[in-house]
């Protein structure tokens, strides 16, 4: 049986940890600094991510959450230091906004060879206390590396991207990927989404690393998404309930 996680080296201190066997094709990212490491998201939570991370660094791990959706916090239970934006703190500590049955139907949406030992009957949504609350502009120090927190609401109210100026890497979570970008359900906001796209466009990242699907699409996709949103706004179509708009590399679900 194939390993559940796929590790890809972005550079000698940066790794993608992906779950390609699941239809969501989630990506988490490990950034090794001199004194500590940053783990961006923890995936579906169907296999032990801590073991994989331990094979890539002996540093203490800080987990940051791009947003509190089940497919980004699944492995949070394996780690101690978890950070999240204020707007989604209560989703971790009090009440996840989607019922377990809804999460499971997503998890089991397409046939999948889950890892040995995984039992979907036992699957639970992570709930726990964050050790740090993040805000726009916060800096995360990893010794030799410095990562900036960018608040990018729209897909969810506390959605965060993480930017490293030195390398030009931008970790985009569910704000940017090659697939269907979701802004159609109650906790999303298409107008905020558009503004967040404009915000990250202004950073001119060298490379982007999304939460799903293609690992490192051309950053020009940000410009294309911006154009799509701007056009819909101009036509007064940027409203929830308007359906799916398809473009070459992505679609927008409003
Ligand atoms: Zn999401
Ligand atoms: Zn996602």
UniProtKB/TrEMBL annotation:
InterPro entries: Metallo-B-lactamas, NDM-1-like, RibonucZ/Hydroxyglut_hydro. Residues 25-212 form the Metallo-beta-lactamase domain. SMART domains: Lactamase_B. It comes from the Bacteria. This is Glyoxylase, beta-lactamase superfamily II. It comes from Isobaculum melis.
């Amino acid at each position: 049986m194939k390993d559940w996680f796929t590790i890809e080296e972005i550079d000698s201190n940066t790794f993608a940890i992906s779950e390609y066997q699941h239809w969501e094709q989630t990506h988490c990212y490990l950034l090794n600094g001199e004194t500590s490491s940053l783990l961006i998201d923890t995936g579906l939570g169907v296999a032990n991510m801590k073991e994989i991370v331990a094979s890539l660094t002996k540093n203490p791990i800080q987990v940051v959450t791009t947003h509190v959706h089940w497919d980004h916090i699944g492995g949070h239970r394996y780690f101690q230091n978890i950070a999240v934006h204020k707007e989604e703190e209560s989703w971790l500590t009090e009440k996840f906004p989607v019922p377990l049955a809804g999460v499971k139907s997503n998890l089991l949406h397409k046939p999948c060879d889950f890892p040995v030992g995984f039992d979907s009957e036992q699957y639970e949504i992570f709930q726990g206390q964050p050790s740090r609350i993040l805000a726009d502009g916060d800096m995360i120090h990893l010794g030799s590396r410095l990562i900036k927190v960018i608040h990018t609401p729209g897909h969810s109210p506390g959605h965060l991207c993480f930017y490293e100026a030195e390398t030009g890497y931008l970790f985009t979570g569910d704000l940017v990927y090659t697939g269907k970008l979701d802004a159609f359900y109650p906790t999303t906001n298409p107008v905020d989404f558009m503004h967040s796209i404009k915000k990250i466009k202004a950073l001119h990242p060298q490379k982007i690393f999304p939460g799903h699907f293609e690992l490192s699409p051309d950053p020009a996709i940000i410009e294309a998404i911006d154009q799509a949103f701007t056009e819909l706004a101009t036509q007064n179509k940027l409203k929830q309930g308007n359906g799916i708009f398809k473009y070459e590399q992505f679609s927008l679900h409003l």
